[in-house]
Design brief:
By secondary structure, the chain is of the alpha/beta class. The chain folds into 2 domains: about 180 residues, VC0802-like (2-Layer Sandwich), CATH 3.30.2130.30; about 260 residues, Rossmann fold, CATH 3.40.50. It contains 14 helices and 18 strands. The protein has a 7-stranded mixed beta sheet with strand order 2-3-1-4-7-6-5. The N terminus and C terminus are likely disordered.
Length: about 450
């Protein structure tokens, strides 16, 4: 019995927000790696539930986790869990006084809340649960204080099944714990696009930008690079986590605030609509190194050494923004050169070429143990894991799907560089078992659903 109690008290409960479900576990594992502690997740984890019991070394680790997590609403020290209130109360009665006395003594004020998922609990039932706890289960001797400034907040959390299902009369699982700290959900509101000086058609959702920065293990004083910077949403999140940022983009007008605006009610971009001004808006201007008008496929412009601690990328998919690089149909040695008053020609740049060039670039310029995190769009019916390119310098850490509609999704690929590139050439180190875009381009898959690959067409027969 003593061993069991000790194991339970190393457990913490995470209460997730009910969005971006596939990014929850990769994000918290990445944050644990940033702070250098292990996190143990049980095999019984249900992705449809907002509650997750994890084993952590200490309360400090839980607070470190929540100092960066945006998929998690709150973390609790878990005191007990059971499939019924009867079992839960029995476990709470068996808790050692050495645990409970610190928080239930006469000098500690407290409050007890009731949280539920997939069912609204009426006030009468919430009060009944709290009264049973106080009168018959745990000896709370302190002063009850319903304000958020009380010394300790405790919470019942009831799970009534996945969202959208018909809830039963009784919860399928109930938890009780001491609230520790909230996550960083307020950062989603702080960095929302509607309030930002500079946005575009493809500006990344601030929550996803924060998740990507966490997945890239961005830390204070890291140097982070985005080769398809656009309006810089990914780099704003990285700067928030303390990184110095560098980026490139082929779109001259976008980076210099020239041309038509994508903001509703505004015809032309303003000169102050720049990535630097976005950073200034949030007090992060000191994290700005430079944003270059450059072609991501021309890696020779960089000094040949490992420069960046992390590389984050949201390449163009060919839907709202074209997939182009410098060059022409006549591949001449001067196709990417330019001079005063000359605008270089551009040519098509397939998704496969983009991802290959990105991996080649990261193999050369990313530091060992640095992370490469990038999006890749896919047709869900045809996708399979072998569509993700592999490189001998990298280890695949996570492959997380964001479903966009019934046919299309995009996957966030997280890779860790595990060894230094030996020599300049790295073509032989990159392997792709099955090219997702070989038969039909992603643009055609998106706009013309009737276009199918030979593989999916044959499966329909």
């Amino acid at each position: 019995m003593v061993t069991k109690i000790k194991m339970e008290h190393s457990n913490f409960l995470l209460r997730f927000a009910h969005e971006h479900l596939n990014f929850r576990i990769p994000e918290i594992l990445s944050i644990a790696g940033i702070f250098g502690f292990n996190i143990n997740i049980g095999e019984e984890y249900d992705i449809k539930s907002p509650y997750l019991v994890v084993e952590l070394p200490s309360e400090l680790c839980a607070r470190q986790l929540m100092s960066r997590a945006v998929t998690v609403r709150s973390a609790y020290e878990l005191w007990a869990e059971d499939v019924s209130y009867h079992g839960l109360f029995e476990k709470l009665r068996c808790l050692p006084r050495s645990l409970t006395d610190r928080f239930t003594n006469a000098n500690a004020s407290y409050r007890v809340l009731v949280d539920s998922f997939n069912k609204q609990i009426c006030l009468h039932d919430r009060i009944a649960r709290v009264e049973t706890l106080l009168t018959d289960v745990l000896p709370f001797n302190g002063r009850m204080d319903l304000s958020a400034t009380c010394d300790n907040t405790f919470c019942f959390m009831e799970y009534y099944g996945p969202q959208g299902t018909v809830p039963s009369d009784n919860p399928s699982m109930v938890f009780f714990g001491r609230w520790l700290v909230d996550g960083q959900r307020e950062m989603v509101s702080k960095y929302q696009l509607q309030r930002r000086n500079f946005i575009g058609n493809t500006s990344m959702d601030p929550m996803l930008s924060m998740i990507i920065s966490n997945m890239a293990s961005v830390k204070d004083s890291d140097l982070v690079f985005d080769p398809f910077v656009g309006t810089g949403s990914l780099l704003v999140a990285c700067a928030h986590h303390g990184a110095y940022i560098v980026g490139t983009d082929i779109d001259y007008n976008l980076l210099l605030g020239i041309g038509k605006s994508s903001r509703a009610g505004q015809k032309w971009r303003k000169k102050d609509e720049t990535i630097f001004n976005n950073l200034q808006q949030y007090g992060l201007g000191c994290r700005y190194i430079d944003i270059l008008v450059a072609d991501a496929s021309q890696s020779h412009i960089w000094r040949p050494q490992m420069l960046f601690d992390a590389i984050v990328a949201d390449p163009p998919y060919g839907i709202r923004e074209p997939t182009q690089k410098l060059g022409s149909r006549k591949e001449t040695s001067s196709s990417s050169s330019s001079c005063d008053g000359h605008i270089p020609a551009k040519t098509a740049y397939s998704m496969t070429e983009i991802i290959f060039d990105l991996l080649h670039f990261a193999a050369k310029y990313l530091t060992v143990n640095g992370h490469l995190v990038y999006w890749i769009p896919v047709h869900r019916e045809d996708y399979k894991p072998s569509n993700i390119p592999q490189h001998e310098c990298f280890e695949l850490i996570a492959n997380s799907e964001q479903i966009l509609n019934s046919r299309i999704s995009r996957r966030l690929i997280t890779m860790k560089k595990v060894k230094q590139l030996d020599g300049e050439e790295n073509g032989d180190l990159l392997h792709l078992e099955d090219d997702h875009y070989a038969e039909v381009s992603f643009r055609d898959r998106y706009f013309r659903p009737q276009f199918k690959s030979k593989r999916s067409a044959s499966s329909d027969l």
